[in-house]
Amino acid sequence: MQARRRGDDQAGTAAPARGWVLIEHHGPWPFGGFAELPIDPEIVQPVRHAAQRIGARVLLIRRYGRRVAEGPLRWAVLRYDADGNHRQQWGTWSTDQDLLRIVPATEAPGRSDLPPVFLVCTHGVHDACCAIRGRPVARALSQVWPENAWECSHVGGDRFAANLLALPSGVYFGEVEPAQAVEVIRELLRGQVSADHLRGYADLAPAAQVAVIEVLRRFGPAGRHAIRLEEAVRSGEQWRVSLRCAPPLPARIEVELRAHLLPQARLTCRAPLPTQAVGFALVELRAD
Questions:
Q1: Are 33 and 9 in contact (CB under 8 A)?
Q2: How far, in Å, CA of 221 to CA of 218, rounded?
Q3: DSSP 8-class letter at 240
């Protein structure tokens, strides 16, 4: 709530990852997520290490309202692919030992023909705002896409709740209300991403995320893979980000940004002390 009142800019705040390990869990979510579940460390550690090897984050998932389906729980390994051939591999687990199947799955090729997954952070133990703002969004998405939508544990950026993550493409949206969430997902499924509510793409560093958002602000919506990073060069507080783009965008766009520290603030409801985040200001955008 305070972040909205301050007008915090969410551009460039997508948590970096190139893959995700999802584990369905219907019990209470501990503050630290999967790492703090009452599961034998000899199972938890291999799963976490396998995820780290491929640059993946481990998230807990459940259906909206803790709806429990018949049969075993599910797990998934989702991999980002720069060409859009995103990979997924799904499995089930009934015993803790079954989770070790995730380890070889992180190295398996996976399938590229499965529908996307939509996650909404509702991790209220981590930050109450995520549950308060996230659950209505999870409900709205589950009504339209019941097989694609899940609640999930902490994804980062609590101050931008409700947070919505589209996988495996790694598109982060923030500060979405239920109707807005449905619209941005419909737009994504039509092959377009706009700057509205966009926090960034998880495969890019913060400066490059901001550069992409500035391009979308200037030229309008574009496909998830229509903008490719060529180079991001830092000189002190200045960044020069070079992008290669597909039509109808200009073929090459160069974005100059200036990094700066934002005023001290409590960035989450549970933060004990104020801290400073980094923001970026547009200096110039040049298109060829």
A1: no
A2: 9
A3: E
How many angstroms separate the Cα of 277 from the Cα of each of 86, 140, 233, 266?
31, 31, 20, 10
The yes/no answer on whether domain 11-189 falls in CATH 3.40.30.10 is yes
Eight-state DSSP code of residue 113: S
Instruction: Residue 124: name the closest of 274, 11, 272, 268 by CA.
Output: 268
Cross-strand pairs, 138 = none
Residue 250 CA to residue 286 CA, distance in Å, equals 10
pLDDT score at 65:
82
Q: How confident is the model at residue 288 (pLDDT cuts 50, 70, 90)?
A: confident
Read off the pLDDT of residues 177-195 as tens digits, 9 standing for 90 and up.
999 999 999 999 999 999 9
Greatest extent of the chain over all pairs of C-alpha atoms, in Å:
57
Alpha-carbon distance 45 to 190, whole Å? 39
Q: Does domain 205-287 have CATH number 3.10.450.630?
A: yes
pLDDT at 277 over 90: no
Which amino acid belongs to residue 160?
Answer: F
